[in-house]
Amino acid sequence: MSSFPTFNDGSGHTSAISKEWLVTNGIGGYASSTVIGENSRKYHGLLVASANPPVDRRVLLSSLDEELVVGGEMFRLAVHSYPDTLYPSGFDYLERFFASPLPTFEYRVRNIRLIKTVFMIYGQNTTVVRYKLLNPDNEDLVLRILPLVANRGFHELRKAIDVSFTEICIGRGIDLSNDDVLLQLRSNMKFRQDPYWYYNFEYELERERGEAYHEDLYNPGYFEGYISGKVGEFYVVASDSIPAGLSADHNSDVSSVIEIINMEYERELSRQIDLYERYRFNEDLPKKLSVATDPFIVHCRSAGSGSVIAGYHWFADWGRDAMISLPGLTLVTGRFGDARKILRTFSWNCSYGLIPNRFSDDGISPPDYNTVDASLWFIHSLGRYYSYTKDIGSVREMWDTVLSIIHNYREGTLYGIRMDDDGLIEHEGQLTWMDVKIGDVDITPRAGKACEINALWYNALRTAAHLGELLGEDVGDHVEMAILAKKNFAETFWDPEVKCLYDCVSVNEDGSLLKDASVRPNQILAVSLPYTMLDREKERMIVEKVHEELLTPYGLRSLSPDDSRYAGRYGGDRNSRDRAYHNGTVWPWLLGPFITAYIKVNERSSLSKEFCRQLLLNLECHLDEGGIGFISEVFDGDLPQRPGGCIAQAWSVAEILRAYVEDIDS
Predict the structure, then answer these.
(1) 494-519 pLDDT, tens digit each
(2) I need a surface site. Which of 4, 73, 303, 662 has the fewest CB within 10 A?
């Protein structure tokens, strides 16, 4: 459990707004803000609902502003930034914050304590905020809670002039609708209508990212409760559809609703504690990461299907991310049913041998298929699923997808993906995980034959051959293609001068080969995958090169600092970030394959395992910065290697946990 100190003079404000908490509901929705309760991103909110699980997410309720009236004096506990103004400064009264097991804020006003806890009801777009007031001196107190409503897509920002709400007020709550989206607020306190717009909220982290960062928010009124005893308990429920039993319209209903809320609280609390305690790990890091896997696993779209949110706050479900993450999220944690559902989702959506690169944010538009590696990762993850479960029935169910992938890659499919005469896969540009474009410019041009794609191709062929034999299928073609690919891989990709792999090989207009000697981390997959093509000495030299030029305490750099294109800082506006994204920025997920490869070439020695254990344990301090309890998407390539991108990234958490369990702790 991480506790954060009070920020009682504003000097810690900059630090505080970059420490963020997150709770989720298992269908893509979430609640998230900072440790002082100030929203520093447009993606923050107490109810960010998934209208079409797990996507089409909308910030319905931005925040709840608490006001405590003691002896006629007002104390405001909220925190907001406006142009050149920070008001109120509720962190003056914030004594402690705990992110786990559930986000909890502890305020003190004089001798009065207010404990605020936030949780979501699993499987529903419903957030519950519980308040407990401890009033040892029996002072007459009034608690007012002002909801600030956004009701917008989470990528957007709005101004008051663009929004109007339809409102229906009931005694203990209000319904607000806009753009056919409903927000329902309920409480055991009376609701008093007093509509008001607040203008020009500033979201500092959006400003730093070069994005729009001003917003107006609507306050329809306030909830008000009175306390005259030593203890007072209140709640506010926010939902796109209030669950049965959570709407107290009469005084007689209040006690039963509080019982239901307490029951839902205990259920979610127990679920979080169980995630932490169910595993056999002796060290805190893998236990914490086991808990951190849960928010990425989502139920969605149709019965029997599941998916993976690639990163919070802004990513939806991406095929590549889901397949890379699947072993760490579901297999090492024993969530085999979820693994099967995730594989099934992407198998059902395979087209022309390609699983989706990503599903649309709106949940209506068709998926994008512009990826060369996601399908190969699918076969890899299906193989890993079988190795953990021995569930041959599910392998048989998805066997046609495996055959479709291999057939289409061999014969040629969309985006120029095809097997060449040498048995290696070639493809058009921006189809690997290094896929950034600015306008028409490929920032990391890798058209042709990429080293990790062909490592994945060989691994997929060998995995398919193994699974096919178990099914009694004829896999002779798979074996022959694998032999051909292996025969030509080293000749095509080995760089004898640098003693590692060329990153990508393409053909010039005159027919000559253009070999990209950039030292990038992609080559580590040619060592780490279950089936590999190189001799042990070449594998050892690859690991040494990656260790020497790319390894940092937080992951692997995406490009060697010795390269003239190296960018050591990930920040600034979108174009600046995109240029650095795969040109030096550190990626934590790559620690997973690095550790697998490092321990492999060192013959799984105890010294190699201990080196890797310490490498991972160094990450534990990061769990208290950025997204609390999570691992960020990226870090700067240069010291001090600040975290960036998403505060919680699926493959960052998953690959580090997988490597710990499969390689270090085995």
Answers:
(1) 999 999 999 999 988 888 889 999 99
(2) 303
DSSP label at 242? P
Q: Is the pTM of this model over 0.85?
A: yes
Q: Strand (E) positions, 171-319?
A: 173-178, 181-187, 190-202, 214-227, 231-239, 297-299, 306-308, 311-312
Residue in 539, 532, 522 with CA at minimum distance from that of residue 485? 532
Measure the CA–CA gap between 291 and 287, rounded to whole angstroms: 7
Q: Which two tokens mark 45? A: 């909110």
Phi and psi angles of residue 99, each rounded to the nearest 5 degrees, phi first: -90, -25
**CA distances to 37, 327, 334, 402, 412 from 463, in Å:** 48, 15, 22, 10, 20
Please calculate the CA angle 462-466-471 and round it to the nearest 5 degrees.
140
Residue positions counted in the chain: 666
| Cα(618)–Cα(414) distance, integer angstroms | 42
Three-class DSSP labels, 341-407:
HHHHHHHHCCECCECCCECCCCCCCCCECCCCCHHHHHHHHHHHHHHHHCCHHHHHHCHHHHHHHHH
- pLDDT, tens digit (0-9, with 9 covering 90-100), for 361-392: 998 999 999 999 999 999 999 999 999 999 99
**Cα 220 from Cα 191, distance rounded (Å):** 10
Cβ-proximal residues to 616 (8 Å cutoff; 6+ apart), any chain: 285, 591, 595, 656, 659, 660, 664
User: 648: burial class by Cβ within 10 Å (0-12, 13-18, 19+)?
Assistant: buried
b/e string for 247-265 if b means 16 or more Cβ within 10 A?
bbeeeeebeebbebbeebb
In a 3-state reduction of DSSP, which class is residue 243? coil
- Contacts for 57 with CB less than 8 Å, ≥ 6 apart: 28, 29, 30, 48, 49, 50, 51, 153, 154, 361
Radius of gyration of the chain (CA): 26
Asked if 216 and 199 count as a contact pair (C-beta separation under 8 A), the reply is yes
Percent of the chain with pLDDT over 70: 97
Greatest CA separation for the chain = 88
Distance CA 254, CA 251 (A): 6
Inter-residue contact 650 to 311 (CB < 8 Å): yes
Quick check: bond before 295 cis, omega within 30?
no
